[in-house]
Amino acid sequence: MVPTAAGDRLGVWIVGARGSVATTVVVGAAAVAAGLAPPVGCVTELPDFRGAGLTPVGRLVFGGCDITGVPLAKRAEQLVAAGVVPADLPAAVGGALAAAEREIRPGVAAAAGRQAPQATAIAAQLAGFRERHGLAHVVVVNLSSTAPQPGPHPAYASLAALRAALDGPEPVLPPHALYAYAALGAGCGYVDFTPSGAMRLPALAELAAEAGVPYAGNDGKTGETLARSALAPMFAHRALRVRAWSGTNLLGGGDGATLADPRAAASKNASKARSLAELLPEPVEGEVHIDEVPALGDWKTAWDHIAFDGFLGVRMTMQFTWQGCDSALAAPLVLDLVRLLGRAMARGAVGVQPHLAFFFKDPLGSDEHRLVPQYELLRTWASPGIPDPPA
């Protein structure tokens, strides 16, 4: 990979480019770049990262794909009506929305037939995007709806087996994993912001190594699990015995509808539960429940109940409620991740990037789930004193 200066533009190709999160990303990036909004929620704008050599937000170039045809400008209007985007912003950043809209291509709705040609077509879209804008690097971000985890398949065991299977008559990869395959093969960095788990397939990890590109995931840590990753270590460090930890999540919008499917919800629930199992010294009772509430729209509510024992076995409880807008919570993290992964590409990084665990519920390449140690690992990696590998 050819290193690029921090001032060069970085391509961002979003799978699910017309969704609520993606639209908020484009609107927010343009607003921050123009000085119309402060970078609240952007970790990479903290003082710890000012010397990290990251691409400025205003130098990000957006494109992507989607199976829906609602233009970004219309989606932005819908987000205004939902109270997610300030009313004056869509008009103020209309040029940025139009530029991103021109770079959105039809998505793959469902895998069918031979997938090798489909992967080739996706890779050609990415190559065209890179060439049109003279981009040294492109980061692909999966913001599509949560999908079930890929089931067992012999083709997933090795890259050679997967390539052979993709050239066969039957589909072997779900659409989100097919995008990951095409992105890595096209030399793009890859971020799985969903819990769908494509990059846990050994064949795709092998492909990233062969292509010499970095990747990170999975399942962006935006709300309830963020609070858990800060609170659970508190109980452990104070030697308080947690007996039960239950959570209920109420979701509206597209996420709520998607997670009403038990197969998709299983991916999300497994991702949420894994962090708590890693954070506490003993197994605890309780489960995470996700319920669709269409009236909530783009907003979500999470309620957690924690039962714990203190000195002499005295039983106590703690409860907290997290109410937030998922798009507004996720969008700045997407900007952080593409800037950090773009810098990793410039530094010649290859394979999973464990220092990005800070951003995920179920981080790839790391067993560290405690929020503060995750942040320290990220800050250390971003330090200007850490030398780049030779080109």
Q: Note the main sheet.
A: 7 strands, parallel
The quaternary state of the protein chains shown equals: single chain
Q: Structural class, from secondary structure content?
A: alpha/beta
Q: What is the number of E strands? A: 11
Question: Which sequence of strands runs across the widest sheet?
Answer: 3-2-1-4-5-6-11
- Give the H and E element order: EHEHHHEHEHHEHEHEHHEEEHEH
CATH C-level of the largest domain? Alpha Beta
Write down the overall geometry.
globular
**CATH fold-level topology of the largest domain:** Rossmann fold
- Count the helices. How many? 13
Helix fraction, binned, reads 25-40%
Organism: Actinacidiphila epipremni
Protein name: Myo-inositol-1-phosphate synthase
InterPro entries: Myo-inos-1-P_Synthase (IPR002587), Myo-inos-1-P_Synthase_GAPDH (IPR013021), NAD(P)-bd_dom_sf (IPR036291)
Family: Belongs to the myo-inositol 1-phosphate synthase family.
